Amino acid sequence: MTVRLPLALLAALALTLPAQAAAPGSPAAAVNVFIGTGGDGHTFPGATRPFGMVQLSPDTQVRHFRQSYPWASGYRHDDNSILGFSHTHFSGSGHSDLGDVLLMPYSGDTKLEPGYPERPHSGYRSRFSHLEEKAEPGYYAVRLQDNEVDVELTASERVGLHRYRFAKDAPAKVILDLRSSIYDYGSKNLWSRLRLRDATTMTGMRETRGWAPGRQLYFAVKFSRPISAPQLHNREEAIEYRGFAAPGKTPADKVVVEGKALVAALEFGVPADGALLVKVALSPVSEDSALANLEEMPGWDFDAERTRAGAAWNAALSTVKAEAPEAMRTMFYTALYHSMLAPSLFMDRDGRYRGPDNQVHQAKGFNFHSTFSLWDTYRALHPLLTLLAPERRNADFVNSLIAAREHSPHGILPVWSFHGLETWCMIGYHAVPVIADAYMKGIRGFDADKALAAMTASAEYGPYGGLEHYMKLGYVPIDREPEAASKTVEYAFDDWTIARMAEKMGKKEVAARYFKRAQNYRNVFDQETGFIRARKSTGEFRTPFNPVQSNFGSDYTEGSAWQYSWYMPHDNAGLISMLGGDAALAAKLDQVFDAKIADNVYAHMEDISGLIGHYAHGNEPSHHVAYLYNYAGAPWRTQERLANIMATQYHNRPDGLSGNDDLGQMSAWFAFTALGFYPVAPGSNEYVIGRPFLDKARLDLPNGKRFTIRAVGLSESNRYVGQVTLNGKPLARTFLRHEDITAGGELVFTMQATPNKDWGKDRAARPYTQTGYQP
């Protein structure tokens, strides 16, 4: 009997695991990648690079799509068994998919089915313990208890690297399963291929019909040891190939198996050192391109690759030097980490990528990215990246959106895209504010005229989401289009960002047209009830009306009237006027946060989570609401609400996110709020000041300047802003301009235990709002 030490003990003795790649005290060392892997955060703990194409992570999901929502990222912290390690994942999505190219090492009997979590040894699935699990940015490790294998994972941008350590004298074996997916086990496969190229190399592909129909992904697998006994199976047709030549073929022929249910069982003999390494490269183009992408990682030095991955993360996270108590510092850097996972690279080393027409294209002068969860991320994630990510990266994002529009069969910008394809998920044309916000903040490196043409084409594409009615009536009618109230107000905001960019470009006619359209939110505001409401094509509001009603496909998108009646972030003065003044706005906001509601009011809507009264922090429509008190001259009320949200909706533990992270939006909200300000209206070039939650933060900006934020006297009791200075001078306004930050300097908050009700009261001190614009 071989006695094996668990990973936790081996790590402590420094026998198996190398020293932590990130230096103690560094930003990367502060990250807790397990935040969000429990509850409904839907994050994953595996290895990836900033915005990398490979997201190599363990999957614990169950087998049936009806249970897929809790396993949207493939992994849940409260599970106790691992299915395997696949190479593509979403971070925090509310929809499940991906989970491509799953590998599972083992040393016992070969089992071609994964088995069931409740039945140990029923398949190749293995139990594990969190005590024998370790992860940090760019690295993941775990001991598979049933399979008796220690697993380590790291990654470059296009290549995932596995290191398996088997028991002494134990045979090394690996399952490669192409049936597995996070969406549903096997049933979404349209076609797949496995090709044994030589004794150490395999290639293949998958075409799937999940969230993005017809998605194609190619891969190449390289092993550090030759395969001694390959078995390639098509489980759907009971076809099996053993050895290096298929029956009826000459030994020189390559072994190829195709079908919808492919799995390979590979044996490697008994490694003298007990180790087997595996490299997996992905490609959107072809198997040969995947082989070429393997050259991104030419060697087999796992520790060196892990160090490079950690260094890449430390460089990305070090754009902010934060000082705070340990728990807050951990949550802040984890939020930054989650904010840098998407949009992800989706391009081969030679610049080729696959677009929404499912054809191969060549990028010229930019890196093509996909995985744009735009309904979520235009609000805070992209504004955060315009502030902290290199200008080149932001230009890549914009160029990718423009390129996707050029390849789109519909001629419009992406709505919710991944792996190059369109899913048509959610509402709005929210690539528009991403582009406009970048342009307004001075990011260049893309064709502005081409970008504006793409933006207006998307805003005027009648067949999409009731736009033909919106352009004719000034609102989306509920008897012609579901979720009409939400669509109207979100279209109006998108229109305003088009106007802002057109105005800056000197396109006065375009600006005037879209500034006018930006006022369409008024057409669905019912002054009698004080709520945004859906209207029929004949003009009257739909009845009966219940402001807490929320159902998929109803008047609102993932929300109720209580959550959506604040969505005119570009014109909050207009909202104040319609409600009856500053006091009326503040009183209505108080009703949102202070409401006592029954537990079952929103229980049927899984996306409406993180409730404080009717405020739902676990979903995006509420994210700007706490900052609206500033527009009524009462920023001290914003400070109170933010303290409550930060204390109740975020925690340094696996279930530490109150809702789906949604490709980084929940985390970006936290990062901005911790710094002390938030972009209520992307495209305005203003950040509404809240209150800081870090003692000190230094932003090392892409232009080489530094902007420092200090909180003097910050404590649990000192939760109010007493005064603010910018570069040593008192700051009377309750917002920062983008140029205030990019110019460099210092913002100082003096905190106190009682509210300062005079600061920010004057109208001149309040943030931007459109009302009053004269074209």
TrEMBL record:
Pfam families: Glyco_hydro_92 (PF07971), Glyco_hydro_92N (PF17678). It comes from Massilia yuzhufengensis. One of its GO terms (cellular component) is cytosol. Residues 290-752 form the Glycosyl hydrolase family domain. NCBIfam families: aman2_put. This is Alpha-1,2-mannosidase, putative. PANTHER family: PEPTIDE N-GLYCANASE PNGASE -RELATED, SECRETED PROTEIN. Residues 1-21 form the signal peptide.
